[in-house]
Specification:
The complex is a heterodimer of chains A (640) and B (295).
Chain A: H1 8-26, H2 33-51, H3 57-74, H4 78-98, H5 102-124, H6 132-155, E1 180-181, E2 195-200, E3 213-219, E4 221-223, E5 226-228, E6 249-255, E7 265-266, E8 276-279, E9 283-286, E10 294-300, H7 311-316, H8 326-338, H9 342-355, E11 359-360, H10 372-379, E12 381-382, H11 384-397, E13 402-409, E14 412-414, E15 419-423, E16 427-435, E17 439-443, H12 445-449, H13 451-456, H14 458-465, H15 471-480, H16 483-504, H17 508-517, H18 525-550, H19 557-571, H20 582-592, H21 597-612, H22 619-634
Parallel strand pairs in A: 11-12
Antiparallel strand pairs in A: 1-5, 2-6, 2-15, 3-7, 3-13, 4-5, 6-10, 8-9, 13-16, 14-15, 16-17
Helix pairs in contact in A: 1-3, 2-3, 3-4, 4-5, 5-6, 6-18, 8-9, 8-11, 9-11, 19-22, 20-21, 21-22
Chain B: E1 8-11, H1 14-32, H2 35-57, E2 62-66, E3 72-73, E4 77-86, E5 92-98, E6 106-112, E7 117-125, E8 130-141, E9 148-163, E10 187-189, E11 193-199, H3 211-215, E12 221-227, E13 233-236, H4 245-261, E14 266-269, E15 274-278, H5 281-292
Parallel strand pairs in B: 3-9, 13-14
Antiparallel strand pairs in B: 1-9, 2-4, 4-7, 5-6, 5-8, 8-9, 10-12, 11-12, 14-15
Helix pairs in contact in B: 1-2, 4-5
Classes of the chains: A alpha+beta (640), B alpha+beta (295).
């Protein structure tokens, strides 16, 4: 829940917060330096004890949280609260290191805003209204900051720096996928709604859901009921396969971080995107582990083009573990001896699975690593990984080179974002066999056992067949499938997609193409920086001018008119002194400007009536304006 | 009272922490190529930039006016009442008022609603005797985020008076009372014989108000008495040779206070000024003023 933080750390935070609320109204303060030092030492020791080291992201975040907790106890002045707010913003950064999900980002936005509001409130002192006024001002700040944030985000030069520090990945990172396929490993993912990746088809050529086999990893080490990928992708070679014309299906894939190297594409990717290679077996392999959402374009062709299989490779693809039982060997032998055509052998094997009483089940019960016999001859109950691994093993025994492919099947269409969403629950395993004329051929044994699984997708299949485990889960699933919830979910997904594709994958590369698109392709980082700066300054000037205009003094007509009269009188030698009341001034001014004495007295009397009579008649203001006008007309051009 | 049109903006100490954190986030974002961290950095930067016009305009439309200051003795506290008027149509918050020319006096006004005024009294210890210029009033604000400070200086041309600090021997110099003069040199003020009434001046002793007249509905009047000039006290500057001018002025001030307190009519004779013996509020301050301004 706390992103891998030791549970006592948030608890400590809450306790110190509660303690502060208790201490503050009573005027208690933490004064003893010794106590503070002991407290700090104890908590720092506890961090070391909890994690066993102080390196890595979690101890680092814990350290900041603990320091902040202790600071809460100690803080008293506005200055100290300011320090705490800055600490809080650093914590927001730590949050982004742990996860960059949209949901997390929204939480952090709320936290960021609250820190801002708190900072405003600290500086307001005893101003009235401790809640809405600072919240209002904070909102105003964020509203005004938004265009600036967008500007900086798009145009502030992103440097691809040489310096680099590795943050240790959070140990809680979950990846549904692994390069090892053992009985039950995929079935555990069937209820995971975690997003694996999202796909757009920019050319509008969308394969049918049943044909959407997303290739992940090819497993070619047969361990009977278990399969695994080659130990290391050391034998990665650069893709040399040319694009086969225009036939390919273009995909834009935005992958969620999973910490591994695998990337996905429709069967069969014909060229790797930048930063990745095509591993033997034609699957994509990222050079760097995928730790943040990444968007790439890939083209897939409907057929694989390598038609040759080297003898050494062929030998490797026929290897089976020695412990396989005679019954299994006999079964495979019986197929291969009856026909020399590999296609016929494959069909016989599929026939075996179709008519042998096999059932597709999410919870077939536990199998041990060597339970191939148990599965094939007794229980006959399994999920896709059971079928794929046993089928491939049988094919090898029958002399047909075979391998297992793990990836995803199908996907959910999102009409708002026009993309397909592939979840961990869509994980699937299937086989590929080598046929002499046509090369590698996909064979999905699950499709003969449970054809609807392929056509409907797992969710619908489970719903229709009531295979879901647990009634509460079924209920939740039913609720989730109500139309309104489906709509909301799809809408949220598409917002997520925008966050991933437009925000999180906006890096130096994306910025370069964006800058080129808006016609500033000549911009080097420095000129880009200067332009951004100028635009920001311009924006600030607009804000400043607008705010100045909004808060300028309200026009007071009486005051303005009387001011005009005073200025006129001053020019005639009767300057009103700051301490002079209107009556005193009129007496003095009438003496100094005898020919206007009547007007001066009238103006002053009207002014006094306007200002001090309990209920001045509305017309008196017009009278006042007339009098002042008459006075300034009569004295036009005169000066002492 | 002239107002400097432009306010000055300067960073506060808190900005160092913010800049450090911004640099750290930038470093983290750039090295991790983390767009979310960049977003946080830009939010922080924008909020900081937005606070510039906010802080700058927090002083817009504010006028400060110093009011008159009562004279005080050196070493005592000067109270300077200042009225801050908010002429703008937005409330202003957290305004600090300081006197950059006269010590470390500082007062904070937390809130001035739109179109309203606030009154604060700056207190600072009086400097040496003499007449002093208030000089400048300084309005400062770090609102709303505390990373920037705006200040506006307003010249205040008023002067205030500081009397010498009273010190020395409190016993009045009896020996130096003048010999009896002729009878006509009577002094109005305080004495034993009733001489008439005049209008009451605020600050005068209430003992001499003609309360009976007040009861008849007449305005406040002060009864005046005559005292014979017998035993008039002249505090003479040159009567005794002194070593330290300020000490001697302090002594004279103390005697003025003592004489006023014991209601003994006193006069003051300085090289340039001579004040005839009398008593009362205005006479008292007249003497002290002469001593304060003595050159």
């Amino acid at each position: 829940m706390f992103g891998g933080l030791a549970p006592w750390i948030p608890i400590l935070f809450l306790i110190t917060l509660a303690a502060k609320f208790w201490m503050e109204p009573r005027g208690y303060r933490l004064r003893s330096v010794l106590f503070k030092v002991v407290l700090a030492a104890v908590t720092l020791g506890a961090i070391f004890f909890s994690y066993g080291s102080v390196k890595g992201i979690e101890p680092g975040v814990s350290l900041i949280v603990v320091l902040m907790s202790l600071k809460i106890l100690e803080a008293h002045t506005a200055r100290e609260f300011q320090v705490m707010v800055i600490f809080g913003w650093v914590l927001c950064l730590c949050g982004f290191f742990l996860s960059q999900d949209l949901a997390v980002a929204l939480c952090l936005l709320v936290a960021f805003s609250l820190f801002l509001v708190a900072l405003i409130q600290f500086h307001r002192g005893s101003s009235p209204g401790a809640f809405w006024p600072p919240l209002h001002l904070g909102g105003k700040f964020l509203g005004q900051a938004l265009p600036l944030v967008v500007l900086l985000f798009l145009l502030f030069p992103r440097l691809t720096t040489g310096f680099r520090f590795q943050i240790m990945q959070p140990s809680s990172a979950t990846a549904g996928f692994s390069d090892r396929l053992s009985p039950g490993s995929i079935a555990t993912l069937a209820n995971s709604s975690q997003v694996a990746f999202r796909v757009e088809f920019p050319d509008g050529r969308i394969p049918s859901p049943a044909a959407m086999y997303w290739r992940g990893v090819v497993l070619s080490h047969d361990e009977g009921f278990e399969w695994r990928a080659p130990d290391s992708p050391a034998s990665i070679y650069p893709a040399t396969i040319p694009l086969s014309g225009d036939e390919g299906i273009r995909q834009w894939i935005t992958i969620e971080p999973h910490g591994g190297h695998w990337m996905f594409a429709l069967d069969w990717p014909s060229a790797p995107p930048p930063g990745a290679s095509l591993a033997p077996g034609n699957y994509l392999w990222s050079r760097e582990p995928i730790r943040k959402p990444r968007r790439y374009e890939v083209k897939s062709s409907p057929a694989i083009s390598d038609k040759e299989l080297a003898p050494r490779e062929r030998k490797m693809l026929l290897e089976v573990p020695a412990w396989l039982s005679p019954a299994v060997r006999d079964l495979a032998q019986s197929w291969s001896s009856s026909s020399h055509d590999p296609r016929a052998v494959v069909n016989r094997a599929l026939q075996f699975f179709r008519s042998g009483g096999f059932q597709y089940s999410l919870s077939p019960g536990p199998y041990k690593q060597r339970d191939l016999d148990e599965f094939l001859f007794h229980r006959r109950l399994g999920f896709c990984e059971h079928y794929a691994s046993s089928f491939a093993t049988l094919m090898r025994l029958a002399g047909i080179p075979a391998r297992v492919v793990v990836g995803y099947l199908g996907g959910e269409y999102n009409e708002f974002g026009r993309f397909f969403l592939i979840r961990q629950a869509d994980t699937h395993a299937w086989c590929e066999v080598w046929l002499p004329e046509s090369g590698w051929q996909r064979v999905d044994p699950t499709s003969v056992v449970a054809p609807e699984r392929i056509n409907l997708g797992l969710d619908s299949f489970l719903a229709r067949h009531g295979v879901a485990n647990g009634t509460s889960n079924t209920f939740a699933r039913n609720v989730a499938q109500q139309a309104i919830f489906t709509k909301l979910r799809l809408a949220w997904d598409s917002i997520n997609y925008v966050w991933d594709t437009r925000v999180l994958s906006f890096d130096a590369e994306a910025q370069r193409s964006f800058v080129a698109e808006i016609g500033m392709s000549d911009a080097n980082p420095f000129s880009l920086f200067m332009r951004t700066l100028m635009m920001a300054v311009g924006l600030l000037a607009i804000y400043g001018g607008w705010m100045r205009l909004r808060t300028r003094p309200r026009a007071d007509r009486v005051k303005a008119l009387y001011g005009r009269f005073c200025r006129k009188a001053a020019r005639l030698g009767a300057e009103r002194q700051p301490w002079e009341g209107p009556l005193d001034f009129s007496r003095r001014a009438a003496d100094l400007v005898p020919d206007q004495s009547r007007r001066i007295r009238d103006i002053s009397n009207t002014y006094i009536a306007l200002r001090y009579s309990p209920e001045p008649t509305p017309s008196i203001l017009d009278t006042f304006a007339r009098e002042v006008n008459a006075f300034s007309l009569a004295t036009r051009g005169r000066a002492r | 009272m002239t107002e400097h049109r432009f306010s000055r903006v300067s960073p506060t100490a808190g900005v160092a922490g913010l800049l450090f954190v911004m640099a750290a986030i930038w470093y983290a974002a750039a090295s991790q190529n983390n767009a979310a961290a960049y977003l946080l950095l830009f939010c922080l930067t924008s909020v900081f930039l937005i606070s510039i016009p906010h802080t700058l305009l927090n002083l817009a439309g504010l006028k400060a006016t110093a009011e008159s200051v009562k004279p005080t003795f050196a070493g005592h506290e000067v109270s300077l009442p200042v009225e801050i008027v908010n002429e703008s149509s937005a409330a202003r918050s957290a305004i600090a008022l300081t006197l950059p020319d006269s010590g470390s006096a500082r007062e904070q006004v937390d809130h001035i609603p739109a179109g309203k005024a606030a009154r604060v009294t700056l207190r600072f210890s009086a400097p040496c005797r003499g007449e002093h210029l208030i000089g400048r009033l300084c309005l400062t604000t770090i609102y709303p985020l505390g990373f920037l400070r705006t200040s506006k200086r307003i010249t205040a041309p008023q002067r205030y008076l500081v009397y010498p600090k009273p010190a020395g021997d409190p016993n009045l110099p009896k020996a130096r009372t003048r010999a009896r003069q002729n009878k006509s040199s009577q002094q109005l003020g305080e004495g034993d014989d009733f001489a008439g009434v005049r209008a009451y001046v605020s600050g005068e002793s209430q003992r001499h108000i003609d309360w009976k007249a007040v009861a008849r509905g007449q305005p406040l009047m002060t009864k005046q008495f005559t005292a014979e000039a017998d035993g008039l006290l002249y505090l003479d500057f040159a009567a005794v040779p002194f070593s330290d001018l300020e000490e001697w002025l302090s002594q004279l001030v103390l005697w003025v206070i003592e004489a006023e307190r014991t209601r003994l009519p006193y006069g003051l004779r300085l090289p340039a000024v001579e004040i005839a013996p009398s008593l009362g509020h205005s006479h008292f301050h007249h003497c002290l003023r002469a001593l304060a301004l003595f050159k």
